[in-house]
Amino acid sequence: MKTGEEEEEILFKERCKMFRFDNSISNWKERGLGELKILFHKGMNLHRVVMRREQVFKVCANHLITKDMNLLPNSDKSWMYVANNKSDGEAEVEKLSVKFKTPQIANQFKEIWDTCRHGS
């Protein structure tokens, strides 16, 4: 089964819960629970985030990491950011938040994210 990730190196892979900010109700809505990956495509020199929901494997995040994408703390286990998310086909600017099991995993995510930002 092809995933579109065959030519990419996995830099980070952890289970998390993703949320999307819904402006119409001014509240966070759960986007999915699953494995979030930060991938690097050497040939194109691009870093991206891909996350699929557990069991159904539906993509709930698919976006590049760019130099201007800062992570903001939401809690000791959670980071918030804005991305041009293509998970539903059309690119849409969304405010997203990812929550990990431990602060250590969240910090590891931030370290790798920041390395990717500066390498893009």
Automatic annotation (TrEMBL):
Transmembrane segments: none annotated. Pfam families: Ran_BP1 (PF00638). One of its GO terms (cellular component) is nuclear pore. Residues 1-120 form the RanBD1 domain. Gene3D superfamilies: Pleckstrin-homology domain (PH domain)/Phosphotyrosine-binding domain (PTB). This is RanBD1 domain-containing protein. It comes from Ciona intestinalis (Transparent sea squirt).
